[in-house]
Amino acid sequence: MADDATGSEMKIFVAGHRGLVGSAIVRKLREYGFTNLLLRTHSELDLTNQSDVESFFATEKPAYVILAAAKVGGIHANNTYPADFIAVNLQIQTNVIHSAYTHGVKKLLFLGSSCIYPKFAPQPIPESALLTGTLEPTNEWYAIAKIAGIKMCQAYRIQHQWDAISGMPTNLYGPNDNFHPENSHVLPALMRRFHEAKANDAEEVVVWGSGSPLREFWHVDDLADACVFLMERYSGFEHVNVGSGVEVTIKELAELVKEVVGFEGKLVWDCTKPDGTPRKLMDSSKLAALGWTPKVSIKDGLRQTYQWYLENVVQKKQ
Ligand SMILES: NC(=O)C1=CN([C@@H]2O[C@H](COP(=O)(O)OP(=O)(O)OC[C@H]3O[C@@H](n4cnc5c(N)ncnc54)[C@H](OP(=O)(O)O)[C@@H]3O)[C@@H](O)[C@H]2O)C=CC1
Ligand SMILES: C[C@H]1O[C@H](OP(=O)(O)OP(=O)(O)OC[C@H]2O[C@@H](n3cnc4c(=O)[nH]c(N)nc43)[C@H](O)[C@@H]2O)[C@@H](O)[C@@H](O)C1=O
């Protein structure tokens, strides 16, 4: 993006700037000195509305786009609202990618997810595992939309020589995460549940599933840095895995969050809830070969996120 003397003044549209990922990307871009950020909340610009998106691009003419707006949720939300997860995501990404191309955007970064890979993909999962097997049923609707987004970027590159790239992040966490008790991802859900259990002197906390699935967790500040890095250094056809390389079982994660929050009761496992994919460790060696490596450890990331939760969620409610 800093490809000329006025690089820092280039107009960059960060779609979804109030979310977990979008807000981290805005912080990172500002830290690197980018000053001309174009931002719209969902109520200011509904990205599922094709004509509004088209008028927005025609009027604003951003030079770069980072697409971090999407319908996002954890295993329960994905399993319960499949129509929303496939329809909203297809609409947002189709509108944004097509209008960005039409109105002269130089480069676009599309964000997918590690759930695009087959349920029983080889581990760690290389980029080449895409479309080699059956998807995990709890999130196949979201995964199909994300795969369509990757393919759309590739199709516009082939037909129009347009610089659209895709990054596949692993399970993320950090400031501005969604702490909803049912619809969020595991890490924020457990942070809130342990916090509330501690505050209410509860003796136990219920955790979903068997505790055996493995997940690769990654602090969103690292992901944001990797996104800026890819915008500046990568212009390839294939999507790029963006992960930490560090995986833990859900049981280990629960113990870590319990320790950070300071809850002293016991864990009870609710095996009526789905485990989802047994393991999804991505092979992020392509990103490493490009010259980028993660910085935030899971312990530091958890402490920082709990502090953020206390200051921005708990204290604001009081
Ligand atoms: N969180 C995770 O663990 C992972 C996330 N990702 C990907 O990263 C990207 C961002 O996810 P994340 O930050 O977690 O999601 P969040 O739910 O935290 O944020 C989503 C953002 O999208 C915006 N948005 C949603 N629908 C619309 C719409 N119709 N029109 C305009 N804006 C809309 C929201 O706007 P508003 O705030 O105004 O409502 C919000 O800012 C997604 O593509 C997701 O698939 C990939 C892997 C893991
Ligand atoms: C990022 C990724 O996120 C989703 O996939 P997921 O990795 O399965 O997401 P999750 O964080 O919701 O669960 C991880 C594991 O944790 C267990 N678990 C325990 N207790 C709670 C709990 O309280 N809440 C949740 N949500 N899970 C719990 C849960 O049973 C599962 O075994 C995709 O749908 C899709 O959105 C996607 O791409």
TrEMBL record:
Pathway where it operates: Nucleotide-sugar biosynthesis; GDP-L-fucose biosynthesis via de novo pathway; GDP-L-fucose from GDP-alpha-D-mannose: step 2/2
E.C. designation(s): 1.1.1.271
Catalyzed reaction equations: GDP-beta-L-fucose + NADP(+) = GDP-4-dehydro-alpha-D-rhamnose + NADPH + H(+)
GO molecular function terms noted in the UniProt entry: GDP-L-fucose synthase activity; isomerase activity
Oxidoreductase recorded as keyword: yes
Residue intervals of the NAD-dependent epimerase/dehydratase domain: 12-243
PANTHER family tied to this protein: GDP-L-FUCOSE SYNTHASE, GDP-L-FUCOSE SYNTHASE 2-RELATED
HAMAP family per record: GDP_fucose_synth
Family membership: Belongs to the NAD(P)-dependent epimerase/dehydratase family. Fucose synthase subfamily.
Protein name, as recorded: GDP-L-fucose synthase
